What does this fold into?
Amino acid sequence: MNEEEVIRDILSGNVNRYAEIVDAYQTIVANLCYKMGGLKLDIEEMTQQVFVELYLALPRFQFKSKLSTFIYRITVNVVCKELKHQKRIIVPTDDNPLPDRPADEPNVEQSIIRDEQLRQLRIAIGKLNPEQRTALVLYTYDNFSYNDIAEVMQCTTAKVESLIFRARKNLRKMLTP
Amino acid sequence: MKEPGHTKQDPIVQQLQSLRYPGTIDVTDAVMAKVRTMPLLTPYQLRRQRFQRVVTAVAACAVFAVALNVTILFTRSYNEAQISDVIASVYNYNADYESTSPMHEMAAIEYLYD
It folds into this structure.
């Protein structure tokens, strides 16, 4: 998909082509919302909201950065805004069951332990401050460098490095029994 | 700056990397239904919106500056009034002391020698 061509097409009135962008990025956006949102965020609702915001922001996209960076920035803003709006304290609830496991999985016990660890990790991430959480979550994307994160967060790479360092330190403190 | 790859070996980072949304997501239809009803801004409207934001920001700064100035002036005049009150009361006290002091002294001497 030639993103620039698709966006120019959308801006000139062919709205239907926006579905191509949604199709291409919805899993990435959902994962980012899931990682950033702690336990109670409605991921589907958030993902929809991100794409609506993205659509409204498209005329401001100047093709200077990658579309993915632009989408990440909007996702981070929408999630942070929602979390701020909710002023939530993240607590584990039964509303968010652990992901289903196939019945024939070889080591069920290990899998349960791993799921519980991930659950604890999500709770701990929810307790980080928004900047540290954003930097750390973006950092976990394989192809993301400090410069990319700085571009999404609109700050310096030195600040990103410091945020990631502090986030990891805080997480380690929270997760160590 | 440290090599990003180096710290990505951290177990916490690796755990976070493996975190994925467990369900499947398909919001295309819902999003398309919403955006079809939303008109996109034209370049002219976009420029106009930016201009309005700048004007609003400048106006907000101006209001803030005026409010700050008024507060400073008010505080300063209030403080000056307070200071002059204190000075005046000190002068009055001194004047009282000077005028009554000899009388007190005389009264004390009379008391002592009576």
Q: What stands out?
A: Confidence is low (pLDDT under 50) at residues 1-6 of chain B. Helices of chain B lie at 4-7, 11-18, 28-35, 43-113. Chain B touches chain A at residues 1-2, 4, 7-8, 10, 12-13, 15-23, 25-28, 30-32, 34-36, 38, 40-43, 46 (CB under 8 Å). The first helix of chain B runs from residue 4 to 7.
